[in-house]
Amino acid sequence: MAAALFSLAIVCVATFVGPFLSSLIPGNWIQAGAFILILGSLLGPHGAGLIDPAAPGLPLLRQLGLAFIFLMGGYNLEPSRVVGSTGRHAMLAWLSSFGLGLLVAWLLPLEFSAKALIAFAISLTSTAFSKVESILSARHELDTPMGKVTESYGATGELLPVVAVALLLEERSPLVELGIMAFFVVVALVGKRLVLHEEHAHSKLDVFVHKGADSNQMMLRLVIAILVGLVALGVILGADMIVAGFAAGFILRQLTPDDSPVIGQVKIVAYGFFVPVAFVLSGCNVDVFEGGSEPLVVAGFILLLLLVRGLPVFVTLSLAPETRSMNPWRRFNIAIYSCTAMSTVVAMTSVAQEAGDMTAHIASVLVFAAALTTIVVPIITRLVEKTHSHAQLKSHA
């Protein structure tokens, strides 16, 4: 118990120190998640050995944190972002990326099993939507036309890899996986009808939850109970943690109105504890020295991300009627934003490694490279913006 508490204390310190180090860099150039992940590696078994990720209770915290990552991804996924012409073109861009990713993985001189090849290809096509949102929010670009298009492509880049994991990496038949996902959709619709009925009937439960003395606390407890229960149900049914977490987030969106204060509280619980703890503990399983010892491989993975994910997005934006009139530098930046891959790759490689579909070495290199994308992407997009602004000033001079 003492060893587990000591490890957890060091983990909690790392979750605070990481964002503090990020704040010391002006302009929000580097995301805090990268620092948190690297601190986990430096303090874990491959570094100072101060954190034992296998200590009692910590593996469960890590799994819950990974579930919360995709839970918030599922909640943030507005249907409007993946429908309409922009959503359809974003899906087309992702399908092109996946096909290109499979071809690249097959051509690489690496000994991949069939599932490892698919997992590697999916990693090359995924977008860490929450990271992209935080960058856009810090730059006050979420509500701009470019920000809205970026959100559509980013949301699709997080949703479709989750579906691909369920259909292509699970042991069961794809029809069974589709059945499990359909079950979650039914649960969401039934839950929404029950919530509307409770509110309309003004039952004792509705009065207690919404109008009691501790209504905010009770609502938060109810939501977390529903979320953890749904994730547990998904795991019992055999669904992947990624799929279960994402489905739980989608269900949460159906059960709570957009202006509900409880969502802010859930985010505090998720991003204040579970998610950063999961990043630290995931970092403990990554040998940052091993990942960084092959700079050419890491640089190659980042270049593959730009090729496999960024290029199809840029081409699609250039051909789609609703975006082809957009300034080329904006289309370029949207494509680069789509290459932010850390949280998705961390969760995906963790699942693939635990299932025996990916070696620890490949996982370390991929996670290290994905962490670097949270550094490289903000730098590239910022430089492009400054170069464009400088060119405009010169043209007006």
Task: Please provide a written account of the structure.
This protein has 397 residues and is an all-alpha fold. The protein is 78% helix and 0% strand. It contains 17 helices and no strands. It has helices at residues 2-23, 32-43, 58-76, 84-107, 114-125, 129-138, 145-168, 174-201, 204-211, 215-236, 241-255, 261-284, 288-292, 295-319, 328-337, 342-354, 360-396. Helix 3 (58-76) crosses helix 11 and helix 6 packs antiparallel against helix 7 (145-168). The termini are far apart. The model has no long low-confidence stretch (mean pLDDT 78).
Strand content: under 5%
Task: Estimate the global geometry from the Cα principal axes.
Answer: globular
Query: If you average the pLDDT, what whole number results?
Result: 78
> What's the count of strands?
0
**How would you classify the quaternary structure?**
single chain
Most strands sheet: none
User: What gap, in angstroms, lies between the N and C termini?
Assistant: 68 Å
Helical percent range? Answer: over 70%
- Count of alpha and pi helical runs: 17
CA radius of gyration: 21 Å
Structural class: mainly alpha
Low-confidence stretches: none
Helix and strand element order:
HHHHHHHHHHHHHHHHH
The gist of it:
The chain has helices spanning 2-23, 32-43, 58-76, 84-107, 114-125, 129-138, 145-168, 174-201, 204-211, 215-236, 241-255, 261-284, 288-292, 295-319, 328-337, 342-354, 360-396. With 397 residues, the protein is mainly α.
Key terms:
mainly alpha, 397 residues, 78% helix
List the helices and strands and how they pair.
Elements: H1 2-23, H2 32-43, H3 58-76, H4 84-107, H5 114-125, H6 129-138, H7 145-168, H8 174-201, H9 204-211, H10 215-236, H11 241-255, H12 261-284, H13 288-292, H14 295-319, H15 328-337, H16 342-354, H17 360-396
Helix pairs in contact: 1-2, 1-12, 2-12, 2-17, 3-11, 3-12, 4-5, 4-7, 4-14, 5-7, 6-7, 7-15, 8-11, 9-10, 10-11, 10-12, 14-15, 14-17, 15-17, 16-17
